[in-house]
Amino acid sequence: HLTPDSGTSTASAGTYRGGKAIRMAGIKMIDLLKKHASRMLGENKENLEIEDGTIFVKDNPDRRISYEELGEILFKKGRLPKTEGHFYFPTSKTKIPGAFGLPHYIFSFSGSVALVEVNTLTGKVNLVKAVNIIDGGKVINKLGFEGQSEGGIVMGMGYALTEDTIIKDGYFLTKNLSTYIIPTIKDAPKEIETIPVETYEELGPFGEKGIGETVMVPIAPAITNGIFDAVGVRISEIPATPERVFWAIRKRENK
């Protein structure tokens, strides 16, 4: 185990904290590889460039060595390069009366829009379309960014519509996936849109902050607000199961 303990990846800090340390280790690795390559190419490391997995001489690109070739030589010599990067969360010296622990320094933000259909005869709610608007700093992996958002929306659907923890006399009645209903890909809305609001975070790796669970938080209230907009009833307790929605509609009609 070569990785020092860096604490948990809570509060979407995994990419921000780990990514920064990895980037710093990578910068050191580039310098170390140039140092080894300079001996083999007979050139000062300041005159070397790296591109597409190859180290070459600036003014003579034909003099080059690939990462693979360099790694093989170093492996045979028992001298595989290793570097370590460190990143410590910035902290404020300002003391806040009554505060304790380590407050977060960087925050990501997101908002959600939900288009829902409500069956007034059964109370069943269908999420037709969902939109996530996310400030996670600079997007460095578009596909991963969108995938995280889409997963968060489906997870938030579960909180909003189906995942109900029922306890009776201290025992869980919803103790497996046949009674604690989680949404599947078949339940996902037909249309999901992710809109990044990019801001450059100077301390993050390549300007990134991270999104993590941020993408999941606002979708449940967006869905319940959509129910109110559709049928005029407030669901004060989630999940908004068909039974709860049905009786909320009947209660409104009987007033």
What does this structure look like?
The chain is built from five helices and eight strands; from the N terminus they run αβββαββαβββαα. By secondary structure, it is α+β, with helices and mostly antiparallel strands. It folds into two domains: 14-76, Aldehyde oxidase/xanthine dehydrogenase, molybdopterin binding domain (Aldehyde Oxidoreductase, domain 4, 2-Layer Sandwich); 119-253, Aldehyde Oxidoreductase, domain 4 (2-Layer Sandwich). The strands form three sheets. The protein has a three-stranded antiparallel sheet. Helix 3 (142-162) crosses helix 4.
Précis, in short:
With 255 residues, the chain is of the alpha+beta class. It is built from five helices and eight strands.
Overall 3D shape: elongated
Q: Which blocks of ≥5 consecutive residues have pLDDT under 50?
A: none
> Which oligomeric form is depicted?
single chain
Write down the Rg. Answer: 26 Å
H/E topology pattern: HEEEHEEHEEEHH
**Secondary structure: helix percent:** 25-40%
Major sheet size, sense and barrel closure: 3 strands, antiparallel
Structural class: alpha+beta
List how many beta strands DSSP finds.
8
Mean pLDDT: 90
Question: Please, how many helices?
Answer: 5
The proportion of residues in beta strands is: 15-25%
What is the level-2 CATH architecture name of the largest domain? 2-Layer Sandwich
Number of domains: 2
Going across the major beta sheet, what is the strand order?
Answer: 1-2-3
CATH class of the largest domain: Alpha Beta
The CATH superfamily label of the largest domain reads: Aldehyde oxidase/xanthine dehydrogenase, molybdopterin binding domain
Return the CATH topology of the largest domain. Answer: Aldehyde Oxidoreductase, domain 4
Q: What is the straight-line distance between the termini?
A: 66 Å
